[in-house]
Amino acid sequence: MLAVLIVGCGMLGLVVGSFLNVVIYRVPRGESIVTPPSACPSCATPILARDNVPVLSWLWLRGRCRHCAAPISLQYPVVEFTTGALFAGAAARLGAAWDLPAFLALAAGLVALAWIDAQRLILPRAVVYPTLLGVAALLVLAAAMSHGWHHLLVGALCAAAWGLLFFLLNLASPRVLGFGDVRLAPVLGLALGWLGVGDALLGFFAANLIGAVLGIVLIATKAIRRDQPIPYGVFLAAGTLLALFAGPELLAPFHSLHV
Predict the structure, then answer these.
(1) Least enclosed by CB within 10 Å: which of 21, 170, 183, 200?
(2) C-alpha span between 174 and 166 (Å, rounded)
(3) How far is CA 99 from the centre of its chain?
(4) Is the confidence at residue 26, as pLDDT, over 80?
(5) Quick one: how many helices (H) and strands (E) in the chain?
(6) For residues 188 and 162, is the Cβ–Cβ distance under 8 A?
């Protein structure tokens, strides 16, 4: 039964990943994610259904438009595959639990936000707020169905703590930490707090550790300047996903941190 759930979530993730490519391309440009239908950026020819199968169509077309032979960015299959893998991994980690849909919504939001932040150094409100609302609504449903109100309360407190902490960090150093990260913080605090206080702490420290290490490497290799902004949302996403997928193992020696 678990195997069916994992495969089903993985397939759903591939489809969601295809939609996330639309979000990643259009939202930063202020375009609608509904209309017009997807088309080749080079020749504007609408993409046929047979050419819109996640991952497989890109491989079949060898990464080129069927009509004008313009190259299709590797981003498309990578986002689709990554989303599918995260959905399958969440199903394997959480099983057929009421909170699984909330973490699928979180994973989808993080993929889109991390990719946009890496490309443009922004975390659009048009993605952050729907992710927050979706995760919050699904966790409320999970709490109602599983009587997990205690988990929801801890999640809400962690969301408030993350929001306040990131707000203060933004005040102290707005060049390093943008306000988009402040908006995103409560989403992550809520989701990880639902799992436990230890998971929320792990996600926060993991994000900062990953960011610090990569920042030092990039500066040392002169890939970026010391005063150049970095896509901190990418590190937040990485820390959050690390806490989700490896939290129980990493926190095993510190059971007292769980609430």
Answers:
(1) 170
(2) 10
(3) 16
(4) yes
(5) 9, 0
(6) yes
Closest CA to 123 of 231, 244, 245: 231
- Most confident by average pLDDT, 32-41, 54-63, 137-146, 175-184: 137-146
The more confident residue out of 253 and 97 is: 97
What's the CA gap between 158 and 139, in Å, rounded? 14
Q: What share of the chain is helix, strand, coil (3-state, %, to 5)?
A: 75, 0, 25
CA–CA separation, 84 and 252 (whole Å):
28
Q: Cα separations (Å) of 106 from 29, 38, 122, 123, 174?
A: 23, 24, 18, 14, 25
Distance CA 167, CA 242 (A): 23
What whole-number distance in Å separates Cα of residue 71 and Cα of residue 64?
4
* DSSP tag of 148: -
Place of tokens 């939609």: 19
Q: Report yes or no: 106 and 139 within 8 Å, Cβ to Cβ.
A: no
DSSP secondary structure letters along 158-169:
HHHHHHHHHHHH
Domain-by-domain residue ranges, the chain? 1-96, 98-259
Specify whether the CB–CB gap between 237 and 231 falls below 8 A.
Answer: no
- DSSP state letter for 33: S
What pLDDT is stored for residue 69 in this prediction? 84
Going 14 to 19 to 22 to 28, the CA torsion angle's sign is: negative
Report the C-alpha gap between 100 and 149 in whole angstroms. 16
Bridge-partner residues for 46, per DSSP?
A: 39
Tokens 């759930």 locate to: 5
Contact 77/229 with Cβ under 8 angstroms? no
